[in-house]
């Protein structure tokens, strides 16, 4: 973070002269906007390709808001289906459609629109001329069919446009805070955000002006919530009437001094234009000693928005229908580091799966064979042109473990987050020990005979816990399905099943200083429907474990998630990357399933006996197997520090 220097010293001496009556700060030239446009013979001559200014941060298309991180290049939006993806991977030279089918559908819809124009007495387009020989009744029938299809699409559409949710208003009205960007190391700028704080000054577009060209003014960060900041223009002092929220990573946000070096106009808002006669002196006084963004801030944002995975890369990913095995899938889209993977055998591309590129659910080709994991072989014999195996270094690394000595063994008992019901931590068993520290885990009482519902966790995974973890931390433990001796007691269960608990020393006890606090807002993936990213709240913290609540939904939809999960994102991540954000559910759309994005849990999963309250923390220590656990403290839960376990008997 650099101190703000005298702005007059940054201005060329030849340009230090008084501007016109608009009150422009001395030494700034008028802004010139450059835009580019392109056309292609693949598109009809009537279709005009809108120009995209390189500085334009947000593009609206089909009622949705998308961001172009670097202007013309970067991301693109299909004009037919609204799909967002990497521009280079889009169809046609103009990059207007994500596929050939969308291009043809768009052409077909254009013809129908031309029919409507003809019926309304408007001159037909060239596309519609081929239809002029059709009888009027045929045209009316075609138009009626088109209208019906549009109405049906509107009724069944479940996705709410991103622009319909206002994070700033939501945070202010609920008097809440957003989790800092520094809490999300996997997110763009997650490791570069430590210098961004309240009081920092930036140069941003001036929206309070009558000028036809883009002009800028200096604003102060009043409040931070993830990527978004509440800003106040310099000169308004304590007047909050013009405060506004802005995503700090959009291209129109710059450090102080950028206008001077770029020749852009710096103009005070018209509301306070006559408040000071000498704006230069005012700014020099206010900005002396103040902090601003690093000079390479925009460059870092651009670099952080580049992702190594590309379309048509082949990976191994968990089979969403059979958790015990993996399948080959192709990368179809990359949005903000999230991957839309299409299983290789999918004929129409509809059999897909969403996950982050750092997810523990995806691996390089050959991973399953190397560790002894189940794998479904593909029947595809001919690869699509352009396919390539994703390089192994692109995948998240796991901690090396020594399995030669004391390690997990088949039949050991533990507690684990149920991947089919992420609101529950269940009694579980190690069913098979794989290579490289991986384990196949089964939920007691609900396992299939053939083990098709076993799931793979690494031995250092933060989603598995030693026996007694839930009781110590007052978390409701889901007992085995059909187990009648309630309340559930681990000591009795181990004796009845002739089992032993996995040693405490084998579990991951590292608790990073993650920075999350109870009540913080964020954007979180609904892992039961992983294509959805929703408005969410941290409602509980147990060491490194976070309880995520989806705003507007019942507690049964909550999820236990690790603090370093790549499925958590700062406020404003969806706007920055162009991903669709699901706003809080209202009572009305909870009552109407067709408009509610979230779905009920799968029928085969078992949640155990529903209790009215969590298990109370006991005063005495509980002895389970040969290990003794101590009682957790409230400080450990509130600040995310400390250790799971205090004492372990030899």
From TrEMBL:
> What InterPro entries does the database record attribute to this sequence?
Mbt, PcG_chromatin_remod_factors, Znf_FCS, Znf_FCS_sf
Chief localization: nucleus
List, alphabetically, the SMART domains matched: MBT
Subcellular localization: Nucleus
Q: Where is the FCS-type domain?
A: 69-104
Task: Give TM segment ranges.
Answer: none
Q: Where are the MBT repeats?
A: 165-269, 277-373, 375-480, 488-584
Keywords of the record: Chromatin regulator, Metal-binding, Nucleus, Repeat, Transcription, Transcription regulation, Zinc, Zinc-finger
Start-end of Basic and acidic residues biased regions? 1-21
Bias category Basic residues: which stretches?
Answer: 598-615
State any single GO MF term: histone binding
Where is it found, in Gene Ontology cellular component terms? Answer: nucleus
UniProt GO BP: chromatin organization; negative regulation of DNA-templated transcription
Q: Which residues lie in Low complexity bias regions? A: 29-41
Stretch list, region Disordered: 1-53, 584-650
Keyword Cell division found = no
PANTHER family in the record: MBT DOMAIN-CONTAINING PROTEIN 1, POLYCOMB GROUP PROTEIN
Q: What is this protein called?
A: FCS-type domain-containing protein
